[in-house]
Amino acid sequence: PPPRRVLLLGEGNFSFSAALCGAPGMQLVATCYESEEEAAGRGGAARSIRRLRDSGAEVVFSVDCTRLKEHFPPGKREFHRIHFNFPHCGRKAGVVKNRQLLAGFFHSCSEVLAQEGEIHVALCNGQGGTPADRPRREWHNSWQIVALAAGAGFILSDVQPFKAETIDGYKCTGYRSQDKSFSVEGALNHIFTRSTAPLCSTPVSCQTQLGSQKVSFQVPQVLVDKMNRGFLEVNSNHPVRTIKEKLSAGLSQAFPLQDISSCLPLLHRGHPHGVCPSNIFWVTLSPGEAPSTQEISQGLANMVLFSHLGQDTDKDVQEGCPTPQQFYLRPSLLPHAQAIIKKKGFSPGTLQVLSGPVFRKCRITPHSLPAFHEMLVVLAVGRGTENSCVQMLVDNIKTTLNSLHQGAPGVKPSISLQEAASFGAELNDFAAFEGQLGEIQHLLCVGTEPEPSGSCVGVIRTAADELKSHEMVVVSASLNLDLLAMLLCGISDWRMLWTWDRRFLEQFPEGELRLFKSFSLYPPSYVHDVSFWLPAGEEFDEVAFHTLARRVSGEMIVSIHLRDDFQQAGTGRRSLCYRVTFQGCDRALGCRQAAEMQLRFREEIQQHLGVTLR
To answer: Residues in domain FDX-ACB (predicted)?
Structure first.
């Protein structure tokens, strides 16, 4: 392969460059800010420059690190690695001026760094402002290097000790090559890489099968990066597929098993009984594509309506509920299971397995997923044996999950079956929504240290009224594969499961589960408050508020907390104040981007929720 071009900036005496020259596979370009005459007068610099040139390296003088593109011709502008050791403006420049220097440097790097290149910035201990510093400075007193890099589209992917003593012949100089050197004890080398591009903001259409007809619809903006990702397909290495396949293999050893996931439609029609409309992603079919009722009924095997759908009632119309002519993305696979049970071909004693992505509007929390992969298993058993069947299902799932964690050392799952009634209102969003779909008897909880009590990742139901036979009972278990993947692989943020960054799936070769190591360290967060008056006499739809936040930010908001709920004496007007925290997960987010998102968010809630900003 051609040699990797390495750019070294701000070299004082060129001793760092000289230590690297001669390394195989490298084409060095060593630079400094001073002129050649000024640089050559520094102690030892002339000798290092001569050594570099003799080895074939390029030495360039008077290079401004904030205008790199101007110093190299078009054919020589791409570098695979850029080093900048101990940047400093000179003299007694404070943190503000040095931040400006770094900001200009990172923006300049974005024009000359190869797509998969790296930027190495060595800083004195404490300057970076990250948790890797020991001791760590207060944020306002640091150089805030991760936030500055994010503003230019870079993420911090690694931090390593800068061990000057191991670099042969290296001697650190002070700023502008002064004789007094920087203190390099405890210094850190910060390694930055390019972030993936921001999410597409243009409307996206999706085609799907609806009954016997193919239709198109505009994807809700919140879900544009979550449609047709193929995580459960045969050639996928994604952790959710690995977990699904392992669970299926384990269950097949205890029950006859049939996987019927391939024929599940993406859209439903009408209004789901018992489910709050604000939790549903409603869609509109492209003009002229809405099939007739007769066409849908003919393709009922491929199109399932929620039970109890019925016709519009006057009450529905008065309350503004969606009509049966409207469509929505499936929030659950349960209706499909109910339809399969009622078909004549349903075989009692055979475990039916359904899996696929489902979509639910929800509040913003680290474990609340607007899209996730559900695995639903359904089994008809003889009345009186349902409890032993449930226990057999749970024991089988426990055994499989315990075997899976062996591939992710350091994560030991604690799996428990708990009565749903014992949880009361303390349910996560997944379990709370499942409760809207029908009565739950048991919760399957998985915990990992240091929180062994666990999070609900599955619900188990037993229902006698699904079958006409009085001798049989249906047992079903719904599992959230995404939450399982997070717990088993140590993934702290659900957004990472949906990243487009190839470095995520590279950690799970051939479907092997491992403990995940983040490639985006210490992402900066930006806190903004928003307060507003509510429209008189109207209930506030908090889920709609959170969904707007998701859409405006492109999932760059990590939390929303209610700070104040105030009612004005005399008028009775009600005001709410929320604290919104912006933070990327796999993508860079700069301070200016977050501020722009906050402004758009304010405009959107005023326009769509009818509030009056304060």
So the answer is: 521-614
* Helix 542-553 and helix 591-609, axial crossing angle in degrees, nearest 10: 140
- Residue 384 confidence class, pLDDT cut points 50, 70, 90: confident
Torsion over CA of 593, 596, 598 and 603, rounded to 10 degrees?
A: -150
Residue 40's SS3 state is: helix
Give the three-state DSSP class for 361.
Answer: coil
Amino acid at 305: L
Nearest one of 308, 325, 332 to 210, comparing CA atoms: 325
Type of residue numbered 281: F
Please choose, from the candidates 351, 358, 357, the residue with its C-alpha nearest in 3D space to the C-alpha of residue 377: 351
Q: Which residue has the higher pLDDT, 149 or 383?
A: 149
The pLDDT mean for the chain works out to: 85
* Max avg pLDDT among 151-165, 340-354, 400-414: 151-165
Spatial CA neighbour of 320 closest among 291, 278, 286, 284: 278
Token digits for 328? 């929505």
Q: Are residues 137 and 26 part of one domain?
A: yes
Cα atoms in the Cβ-side hemisphere of radius 13 Å centred on 33: 18
Structural domains in the chain (count):
3
DSSP H or E stretch at residue 598: helix 591-609
Residues 214 and 336 in one domain: yes
Q: What is the torsional sign of CA 308, 313, 318, 321?
A: positive
**Burial of residue 145, with CB atoms counted within 10 A of its CB: 0-12 exposed, 13-18 middle, 19 or more buried:** buried
Task: Please list, in sequence order, all residues whose beta carbon lies within 8 angstroms of the beta carbon of residue 365, skipping any fewer than 6 positions away.
Answer: 429, 559
**Pair 464, 589 in one domain:** no
Separation CA 397–CA 243 (nearest Å): 11
Nearest to 498 by CA among 234, 281, 240, 192: 240
Query: Quick one: how many helices (H) and strands (E) in the chain?
Result: 15, 23
Final residue before a domain boundary, out of 194, 229, 263: 194
**End-to-end Cα, the chain, rounded Å:** 60
Residue 471 has a pLDDT of: 79
Mind listing the pLDDT tens digit for each residue in 222-261? 999 999 999 999 999 999 999 999 999 999 998 899 888 7
Containing H/E element for 551?
Answer: helix 542-553
Domain range for 393 is 204-287+325-506
DSSP annotation string for 236-302: ---HHHHHHHHHHHHHHTTS-EEE-GGG--SEEES--TTS-GGGS-EE-BPTT-PPPHHHHHHTGGG
Helix, strand, or coil (residue 371): strand
